[in-house]
Design a protein that fits this description.
Strand content: 25-35%
Largest sheet: 7 strands, antiparallel
Helix content: 10-25%
Shape: flat
Oligomer: single chain
Distance between the termini: 12 Å
Number of strands: 20
Order of helices and strands: EEEHEEHEEEEEEHEEHEHEEHEHEEEH
Structural class: alpha+beta
Number of helices: 8
């Protein structure tokens, strides 16, 4: 049995922002000369892990943040510590690394390889051409929103009388509005790919030369019923079946139903899923969800999205997809069927007897 499951998901994003820290992330496509919006694989992975823990109603692993204060009183950030504990499902699926001076390094590579979410084709999605100026506006009720003004080099703020005097002398006002210039949003058809390594999915290595676990954690897992086994990477411990049966459906749900959320409501988009392709052959995914250039005699070619269920992958098409490309296989239960397909593929693998 092929130890990999490959997944491609096509989504529609509408007038949104994938990353709000420093504007929308983008890269340049040299073939078509366009700047493309994208969501990094790390951001997609984080969103998947959040959806997974939400589905199981369990907390994410606690991360220890380390700070150091030098003799001059300056505080600096040091490397955060993961608990490196497979009891936390986001650690088991997401991987970990901890390099501690008082102990040896432990690290686990995630069994999920996740691509960036990027346009299906440079002509079908990306940054909107026009930039916009956003506002943080509280000018409608200025009395409800105080202001603080400090003169440069002064620690104490100016009093109300001093502010009024300065404003009158300089013919100025204090608006309760801040402009956020040159913001761009993303729209179009976006795709991301996932490779699931079933050999690693529920197995943690006990190899002492490349340790994933501390000796104490190995003994704790054995006492809790984790099964001693061996895979192509060496000796390992396998999560018990009853626990796998809880995680697998939740992971299938998370991979198909995650969302990028933000504390800024302006960035939210349904990012509805249009099509899903699942296979044990990565090459079939590229044919199942693809594009075709059409030259209709205009100034430039056009890209036509194509979803094809005849190339060897299991393909699921949702109802909204019919608004973006021609299809006759859309269905109301497409996502539920895709979840079942993923779940059955993960459950069919023999995790205990890989060798």
């Amino acid at each position: 049995m092929n130890p990999y499951i490959y997944l491609r998901v096509l989504r529609h994003a509408d007038h949104t922002v994938f990353c709000v820290q420093d504007g929308q992330k983008s890269y340049y496509d040299p073939t078509f000369g366009r700047r493309m919006a994208y969501s990094s694989g790390q951001q997609v992975k984080r969103s998947v892990l959040e959806a997974l823990t939400d589905a199981l109603n369990v907390p994410m692993a606690p991360i220890t943040f380390n700070y150091e204060i030098n003799k001059a009183g300056k505080m600096t950030n040091k490397e955060p510590w993961s608990p490196c504990d497979p009891h936390y499902v986001d650690q088991l699926i997401g991987g970990w690394m901890r390099a501690a001076s008082e102990n040896y390094t432990v690290k686990r590579r995630s069994p999920l390889s996740i691509s960036a979410m990027r346009p299906l084709h440079p002509l079908l999605g990306g940054l909107e051409m026009e930039a916009e100026n956003l506002t943080f506006d509280r000018s409608d009720r200025p009395e409800n929103h105080p202001v603080i003004v400090r003169m440069e080099g002064q620690k104490e703020p100016m009093t109300g009388e001093q502010i009024d005097k300065w404003l009158n002398e300089n013919c100025r006002t204090l608006p309760r509005r801040h402009w956020i210039p040159d913001n761009r949003r993303a729209s179009g058809l976006f795709v991301f790919d996932v490779a699931i390594d079933l050999r690693r999915l529920f197995c943690v290595s006990t190899n002492p030369h490349e340790p994933e676990l501390t000796p104490e954690m190995i003994e704790a897992l054995k006492n809790e019923g984790w099964i001693e086994s061996e895979n192509t990477f060496g000796h390992c411990l396998v999560m018990p079946k009853e626990k796998r049966d809880e995680v697998i459906p939740a992971l299938a749900h998370a991979l198909l139903n995650w969302r990028i959320t933000s504390n800024q409501a302006r960035t939210f988009s349904l990012m509805e899923t249009l099509a899903v392709a699942i296979s044990d052959n990565a090459n079939t995914l590229a044919g199942a969800i693809r594009t075709k250039l059409i030259d209709d005699g205009g100034d430039r070619p056009k890209a036509k999205p194509i979803v094809d269920d005849s190339v060897g992958a299991d393909v699921f098409v949702t109802l909204p997809a019919a608004g973006y490309f021609a299809t006759s296989i859309e269905s109301a239960d497409a996502l539920a069927a895709a979840e079942r397909d993923l779940t059955e593929r993960m459950q069919a693998f023999d995790y205990e007897r890989q060798k």
